[in-house]
Write a structure and sequence with these properties.
The chain is 0% helix and 62% strand. It has no helices and 10 strands. The strands form 2 sheets. It has an 8-stranded antiparallel β-sheet with strand order 1-2-3-4-7-8-9-10, with no helix packed on it. It starts with a strand and ends in a 5-residue tail after the last strand.
Length: 186
């Protein structure tokens, strides 16, 4: 059996591409009963903050972690960078561990502010289309590790780069980015 509890606090102005506000997401998951073969507790945290700096400039920050405790963790209970979570600059690399810690920061500059287009040929609920273009500078860092291995700054993989984000109709966001790793390899 798996038992879990979670908490979400969200003051962001727009879920798919916020420009101000915060998100706090906490979760606690208990897998198995004490004394059984599977006896694990997983703590998950995701903190995001979006701060407008000027009329077209926004700074964003995210820190996230996924920590396991209690009994031994089977391989299917591991965490990864390289699948759902990625470090830009290491996009195609996969890092595996029991625990995960990551940071990301972005500076958004709006090139084309939100524009609305009405498409009369579509039903009313689908007829208003939204477009915008945002330039980004970003930096990511993160690590995964197994219990018993020290968490050290030297074990973090890092990446940085720039991109263009296109806000499209129906809340879609197309991100085009180019990133470099610590060795400046793109």
């Amino acid at each position: 059996p798996v038992f879990g509890a979670g908490y979400v606090y969200d003051t962001r102005d727009l879920g798919e591409y916020p420009s101000q506000g915060s998100l706090v997401r906490l979760a606690l998951t208990k897998s198995g009963f004490p004394g059984g073969e599977l006896d694990l507790v997983r703590y998950t945290i995701d903190l995001r903050h979006y701060t407008p700096i000027a009329s077209r400039l926004t700074w964003t920050f995210r820190t996230f972690s996924d920590i396991v405790a209690a009994g031994p963790a089977p391989s299917y209970y591991h965490t990864y960078f390289g699948y759902g979570e990625r470090i830009r600059g290491h996009f195609r690399e996969v890092e595996e561990g029991e625990n995960l810690l990551g940071f990301t920061s972005e500076l958004h500059f709006t090139i084309l502010p939100v524009q609305y287009l009405k498409v009369d040929a579509l039903p009313a609920e689908f007829s208003v289309w939204k477009f915008a273009v945002v330039a980004t500078l970003f930096a990511d860092a993160g690590t995964v590790w197994f219990r018993g291995t020290p968490l050290a700054a030297g074990n973090f993989v890092k990446g940085y780069g720039a991109g263009l984000n296109f806000l499209l109709p129906y809340s879609a966001v197309l991100r085009t980015e180019y990133a470099f790793d610590e060795a400046r390899k793109g």
